[in-house]
Specification:
Layout: H1 2-24, H2 31-38, H3 42-48, H4 59-73, H5 80-98, H6 101-113, H7 126-140, H8 150-170, H9 177-190
Helix pairs in contact: 1-2, 1-4, 4-5, 5-7, 5-9, 6-8, 7-8, 8-9
Length: 196
Amino acid sequence: MAKKTGRNTKQKIVSAAWKLFYEQGYDDTTVDDIVFESGTSKGSFYHYFEGKDALLGSLNILFDEKYEELEKVIDPDMDAIEKLVYMNHELFEMIDSSVSIDLLARLFSSQLITHGEKHLLDRKRAYFKLIKSTVKRGQEKGEIRDDISSSQMVNDYAMFERALLYDWCLSDGEYSLVKNAERLVPMFLKAYRNEI
């Protein structure tokens, strides 16, 4: 039970931080603001994070929370490709409405220069687990090609999503992330559909 409570505390801190970063900006958000918004303590904050900068690598937790929510509500009658398109749409909607481009760019920058764990590539994340299970079920049902491994498809899909996000950051959000993905993700995934 203590592990789950700790996980909930960490998630509260992360959710509160990213909400405040979006609303007030990263530079104008203090640790005290995050502690107050999360309803936790400074001790809890510093138990999980060395400081505010350490939260930049935690955006993946917010993304994973979204995937855990989606796993519970996704329509089981959708085929695997439709599920992947749906998950992408929902994630990008969340990013578009609650994560500033500046913060996303900082996340990418931090992942490029880190010499330790690259959070975006951690295969234990809910993000990768849900995508992999979706692809595997799609292969079992004959909806997705089986001449390419599920691991390779997951890597390709994740890389494609990161490319879309990275380009959106480079372009400083001059176009709609969601609309661009609605156009490109189905075209990308069409290559993996099993044409029987």
